[in-house]
Design a protein that fits this description.
Length: about 500
């Protein structure tokens, strides 16, 4: 990112700058998770099908992940403060728009706009932080606050989503950004000085092709839940998406200012870290999405109780993230990644045994702690592996690719695992109720049902989610093998890596 002078005003001014950056980052992270607990309420209010409901999550993730690198370039070219303020303004407006939405199309458009805004805010906020605080203890302390907020946001999103949905309405999972965004907009012009714009070109063709290609791929994979794999509604989007991604690679190889310099992938450790983050993003989205629906539909928890149920995950992640930061200089990234992916996989395999008679204490609490613990062990070593040995001027791109990989992995994972779960649910429904033709078990949960039908629906949903968790666990076993064979960063190199480059 472009360098600039630190803002005037001493520690008080820097405290204001850090507060605004932390709040902005919290908004971005919250928007990933805060809608999860509200999904059943959104489904009933706007009559979403089980497949289309996934787009409430994926519209944000695809826009965020696909445009994140472009957002960093925009901050460099037009100024970090302009990108930050513009992104916060768009996020605030999109949240208001989404909260007022009275149709599926309007809500999904608002979620996509939120993702576009997040792709502007996230890189600009990190750039403002690194240029506001001097290297060393001052910057590392600020990075600690930034990282803690990023970690807390995921857990807090589930809790707030449940509280707002229960006490007010699902619409408040979107409205919450509006007053916060307005306050940030009022204070930001005086908290930051503008950076010096760079002369680099914007790779718009690259951004359009990678975002469009990924979106088409996800759309086709999701269509497979309701169409045959040979159906044109499935095949054409998948083929079109793959073709656009090939076009993206060609563009990146030929342009003078690529979003993603292909040489970044030359290091096995970096390429391995990106693939592992992709799998973790997929597994995390499966965990939160499937369990949110299971806890509310099958266990009958309220949205608020569901939100608090996920605190077990946050506790596990907080403990092991702290441990990984302390241990990595002695163990190196590979050992922590190997343990973390296996621990997370163990939690998912445990969840694959879910049934309609499962309980939170016996069947969910342990897997949630394991999922959080495994995730916490992985994030710091992945970040270090992603930037180890990279050129200084490309450290930001390398780190942004890791973040983009998590978002794209979440979208692809939900599309693939959601389709697998939906097909397994349909097959189980056919077995339990031969005359039903399978049907949409999620759609059958909205009204009063005869007891035998409700029992069949809950059994089918539990089976479908279990199959999804089983496949997600296998994906993380593959991530474990990738870590063993590609992550070759030594403990000494990990200890020397600048903490500011990996948050």
């Amino acid at each position: 990112m472009s360098a600039r002078e630190a803002p005037p005003g001493g520690s008080a001014h820097k405290s204001l700058a850090l507060t605004l950056i932390a709040v902005a980052q919290m908004m971005v992270v919250l928007d990933v998770s805060i809608v999860n607990v509200a999904l059943p309420s959104i489904q009933q209010a706007l009559d979403f099908s089980a497949t289309n409901l996934e787009w409430v999550v994926n519209a944000y993730a695809l826009a965020f992940g696909g445009l994140l690198l472009l957002g960093g370039r925009i901050a460099d070219k037009f100024g970090q403060r302009k990108a930050f303020i513009g992104g916060i303004g768009l996020l605030t407006a999109a949240s208001l728009f989404g909260g007022l939405a009275n149709s599926q199309e309007l809500l999904l458009a608002a979620r996509a706009l939120q993702g576009v805004a997040a792709a502007l805010v996230a890189p600009a906020a990190l750039a403002l932080l690194t240029s506001t605080f001097a290297p060393g203890a001052e910057r590392n302390k600020a990075m600690g606050v930034y990282g803690a907020v990023a970690g807390l946001g995921g857990a807090l999103g589930n809790v707030l989503g449940g509280v707002f949905t229960d006490a007010l309405s699902w619409r408040w999972v979107l409205f919450v950004n509006v007053p916060i965004g307005l306050l940030v907009l009022l204070a930001a012009p005086t908290a930051f000085r503008e950076s010096t714009p760079s002369r680099g070109r914007l790779d718009l063709p690259g951004a359009i092709s990678v975002t469009g290609g990924t979106s088409l791929l996800v759309y086709g994979l999701m269509n497979a839940a309701s169409h045959d794999w040979s159906d044109t509604a499935t095949v054409l989007p998948i083929v079109g998406g793959a073709a656009l991604l090939v076009v993206f690679l060609i563009i990146e190889a030929r342009t003078s200012s690529p979003l993603m310099p292909l040489r970044i992938w030359a290091s096995p450790a970096r390429s391995g870290s990106y693939v592992i983050m992709l799998t973790i993003g997929a597994a995390l989205m499966a965990l939160f999405y499937f369990l949110t629906l299971f806890i509310q539909i099958v266990l009958g928890f309220s949205p608020m109780r569901t939100g608090f149920a996920f605190l077990a995950f946050a506790v596990g992640a907080a403990v092991t993230a702290t441990l990984s930061s302390a241990l990595i200089a002695r163990t190196g990234p590979r050992a922590l990644l190997a343990v973390g992916t296996l621990v997370f996989a163990a939690g998912l395999f445990w969840l694959s045994a879910l049934g309609s008679d499962s309980s939170y204490a016996a069947d969910l609490l342990g897997p949630l702690v394991l999922g959080g613990a495994g995730t916490g062990l992985c994030f710091v070593p992945l970040a270090l592996a992603a930037v180890a040995g990279v050129r200084d001027e490309e450290a930001g791109v390398a780190s942004a690719l890791l973040n983009a990989g998590q978002q794209v992995g979440a979208a692809l994972g939900l599309a693939v695992l959601g389709t697998i779960a939906a097909n397994a649910t349909e097959e189980r429904m056919k077995e339990l109720m031969p005359g039903s033709g399978g049907g949409d078990a999620h759609g059958a949960t909205g009204g009063a049902m005869p007891p035998q039908v409700q029992e069949a629906v809950h059994d089918a949903l539990s089976h479908g989610y279990g199959v999804g968790f089983l496949v997600a666990g296998c994906v993380l076993v593959a991530a474990f093998l990738i870590a063993l064979f590609t992550i070759r960063v030594s403990a000494e190199d990990a200890a020397r890596t600048d903490v500011a480059a990996v948050v």
